[in-house]
Specification:
- By secondary structure, the chain is an alpha+beta fold.
- It contains four helices and five strands, in the order H-E-H-H-E-E-E-H-E.
- The protein has helices spanning 3-15, 23-31, 36-44, 80-84; strands spanning 19-21, 47-52, 60-68, 71-78, 90-96.
- A hairpin with a 7-residue loop joins strand 2 and strand 3.
- The protein is globular and about 35 Å long.
Length: 113
């Protein structure tokens, strides 16, 4: 499956509520005052920023979505189980607002320019 098809499947999973949050993601969502509905909506309209296919902990993707016009959110997902069997939900590893100093803006990691 190529990258556009993968992202279509990821967006579908968020739109259909076919995701589960890790404990860490749940805590981070609460800290950033995100609702489950806002996170699902952001994921359903997200774009891929980075793909970590060779991580020892599993195949992860960093997504960029928006809760509102000026409210970007990064969503890190684990897609190992989902890509092997689409009946398995996507695992949301964490979700957070990209903020300085690590992220000068929502698209640029510090030191990446």
């Amino acid at each position: 499956m190529d990258q556009p098809e993968q992202m279509s499947a990821v967006r579908w999973a968020f739109a259909e509520h076919h995701v589960v949050n890790s404990f860490h993601a749940h805590v981070e969502v609460l800290i950033d005052h995100l609702t489950t509905a806002a996170l699902l909506n952001a994921g359903a309209r997200s774009e891929l920023l980075e793909d970590y296919s060779d991580r020892p902990e599993g195949h992860r993707k960093l997504l960029l979505g928006y809760v509102g016009p000026d409210w970007p959110v990064h969503i890190v997902i684990d897609v190992d189980a989902f890509e092997a069997d689409f009946s398995e939900p996507i695992m949301v590893v964490t979700a957070y607002r990209p903020e300085p100093p690590e992220w000068p803006d929502e698209l640029t990691r510090r030191g990446q320019r």
